[in-house]
Fold this sequence. Notes:
- The longest helix is centred in the N-terminal third of the chain and has 18 residues, at about 45-60.
- α1 packs across α2 (about 20-25) and α1 (about 5-15) crosses α4 (about 45-60).
- This protein is about 45% helix and about 15% strand.
- It has 2 domains: about 5-60, Arc Repressor Mutant, subunit A; about 65-130, no CATH class.
- The strands form 2 sheets. Strands 1-2 form a two-stranded antiparallel ribbon. A two-stranded antiparallel sheet has the order 3-4.
- About 15% of the residues are buried.
- By secondary structure, the chain is an alpha+beta fold.
Amino acid sequence: MTKRxxxxxxxxxxxxxxxxAAIRAEYSIKNADKIGPGLIGKSRVKEAIEKALAARSxxxxxxxxxxxxxxxxxxxxxxxxxxxxxxxxxxxDANRDDTAAIASxxxxxxxxxxxxxxxxxxxxxxxxxxxxxxxxxxxLFSDSLRLSGExxxxxxxxxxxxxxxxGQ
Length: 168
């Protein structure tokens, strides 16, 4: 693998965008949209990218399973398992996985003559977004329609003239 291809691999790891990686690796800007994907198709470059991604995953501890598990905590949260609705507070017996879905807790104390009024606001992460990301990962949603099968094509020439091929 050339030094430039190695640079492409390093740049590709930044955002996983082949075109931008080709530009940053100083390939032709004009042809980067073809060069980038072409480089990924080369077995040595592809292998180097896979090794680098695996090393990064080991180094950071971030894996597909870990990301999916974190998304699942948000997506499948039952709010009543975490929040005491009568007191608007986190339940004492809420487990760690359920509390991971909490984005923020705000407590505001308002002094009054009769005593303090305590307002609590508990926000969870976006459940719909988490479900959407999980659905995309497992191929539940598709932006395109894929058809497969065989199609026979019959070409009919009805432009020609009479028997000798000339019109009248």
